[in-house]
C-alpha cells in the first residue's frame, strides 16, 4: 500500500482502543504493550496515543512512551512492539516519516520501536536437534522452517531509512526479546496440542492431575486476596532464581489498568496442592494472541508439577476462547548446552511449539548529538 497522504496526530485512548478492537477482530494482531492501558502501567513514562489518518480514516495506531533525559526537556520516544501499521507496505517511509515528524515536534531526540514482524521460524524438533548437535551454538546456525519475505523487506527498508538495529548479545533486544517461543493454536484441539508436547511435559501434566493439583482462574472478587499471595510466591521465585522482582504495586496497577480496558485482558491463575499455593501464573490477551506474562513456583512440592498444571490451564483456556497463538515470550538464541540460558529454551521447546524471531528493536536518532550522549550513557550503564 502506497500511502503518501498519511497524517499522524494525537488520538484519544478510546479511539486507540476502538482501532485495536477492529483490527484484531479482522484477524490482525497487536501486542498488549501497544494498548492504551499499558501506558498507565508504565507510569514513570509520559504516554501518548497516536493515529495515522488517511483523510478521516484511522489507518494505524500506536502507544508512545516518552522517557525524559535528566536535566534536559528532551525525550526518547519508545513504541514497544509497535506501531500497529501496515508493515507489508513496500513504502514504509510513508508511514514512518509522518510519525517521526510528529514525535520530533513533541521533543523527541530519538525514536525506538519494535516492529511486530516475524523474520524467521524454527520447529521444536529442529531446535531440539540443534541443542544436541555439538557444531551448533545459536538458532542462527539452524536452518529455519520459514523465512518471512515481509520480515526481510521490513529489515531492508529500515536500514535504507537510517534506522539502527538494537539487538544485543544473546538475542535480547534493548527492551523486548527478539526471540520468542510460541504454540500455534489455530485449528487445533487440546489433543492436538498435547500430542505435540514431549513426553516429559505430558507426564508432568498427568502427574499434577493425579497428585490432586487444582488450578483456579481467579475472578475479580478474589483478586484482592490472591494477588498478594501470587506476589509472595513470585518474590520467593526471584530469590531462588536470582532476578530482581517487581513490587506488588506494579502488579496491582497492571491488573487495574488492563482489566479496566477489557475484563478478560489479564487473568491470574493459581495452582494449589492440599491448600498450599505451589504455582501461579499471569495470562494476557489481545484479540487472538495470548501471552504467558509472569510465573512463580514454590521450591517445596515441586514434584507435584504445579507450574505445568497452570501452563496447561492457560493453554486450554486460550484454545477454548478461540486464540490463534499461545506465546511463552522470550528466549535467548543460544543452543549451547553449556550455556545457563539453554534450560529456558529446553523447557519451552517441550511444549512442541516454535521458536520465532522478530525484526527486533530499532532506533532512529533525531538529534544526533543528544542521541550519542544517550547511547554512551546506556552502554556505560549496561
TrEMBL record:
Alphabetical keyword list: Acyltransferase, Cell shape, Cell wall biogenesis/degradation, Peptidoglycan synthesis, Transferase
InterPro entries found in the cross-reference section: Acyl_CoA_acyltransferase, FEMABX, PG_Glycine_Bridge_Synth
The organism's place on the tree of life at top rank: Bacteria
Pfam families recorded: FemAB
Family named by the database record: Belongs to the FemABX family.
Protein name, per record: Aminoacyltransferase
Source species of the chain: Nocardioides jiangsuensis
